[in-house]
Design brief:
Layout lengths: L6 E7 H11 L2 E2 L1 H9 L3 E11 L9 H9 L3 E6 L1 E4 L5 E4 L3 H11 L5 E5 L6 H9 L3 E6 L10 H6 L2 E4 H8 E2 L22
Parallel strand pairs: 1-3, 1-7, 3-4, 7-8, 8-9
Antiparallel strand pairs: 2-10, 5-6
Protein name: NYN domain-containing protein
GO molecular function: RNA nuclease activity
Length: 195
């Protein structure tokens, strides 16, 4: 599936990967994830996409985002949008699809293999467009949840489907191993988190 001479770019839909791993009962160890894919070829870039709440300076995601940013990932964020639906219920929206698609299309000429960590069927057209440029596309998600977290049309479009559960021993950790997080003080606020 991977040629060690390939230049690889990872595109991680943070919310989607989190949901898939959580459904399978493990957390992602992002340091190990980089190491695993770094051994498969030349890892050119690893992008991580997530939306953040504007009003939460100390979001629960902030330590992870800071750690990723300091440790080899290109982190792409944007604020969550808050709105009220027709019945007056507060809703939040933080879709990062367009950012991921633009970055993937921009880097496609420089890589041989795109690895997409998402099961979102909206990315089928992205996979198809990258393949038209002569690049391989692998998709990492899971079929082992009910319902499956991977859209069938995305799985069919990909050159390779990688079952997330099969990667658990290489990139996973038990949720009980999560480091305890304290609210940062002014001295630690800008230091990278130990994730």
């Amino acid at each position: 599936m991977f040629d060690p001479r390939e230049k690889i770019a990872l595109f991680i839909d943070g919310a989607n990967l989190y949901s898939a791993a959580r459904s399978l009962g493990f957390d992602i160890d992002y340091k190990r994830l980089l190491a695993v894919f770094g051994r498969k070829g030349y890892l050119l870039r690893a992008y991580y996409y997530t939306a953040l709440a504007e009003d939460q300076e100390f979001s629960t995601l902030r330590p992870l985002i800071d750690w990723l940013d300091y440790n080899g990932y290109t982190v792409v964020t944007k604020p969550l949008k808050e709105f009220y639906d027709q019945s007056g219920r507060r809703k939040v929206k933080g879709n990062m699809d367009i950012e991921l698609v633009i970055d993937a299309m921009e880097i496609a000429e420089q890589v041989d293999h795109v690895v997409l960590f998402s099961g979102d069927g909206d990315f089928r057209r992205l996979a198809e467009a990258v393949q038209r440029k002569g690049k391989k596309v692998s998709v990492v998600s899971t079929l082992q949840t009910q319902p499956p977290m991977i859209a069938d049309d995305l799985r069919r479009q990909a050159d390779h489907f990688i079952e997330l559960a099969d990667l658990q021993s290489d990139i996973g950790r038990d949720p009980s191993e999560r480091p305890t997080r304290e609210r940062p003080t002014s001295e630690t606020r800008h230091a990278p988190a130990n994730i």
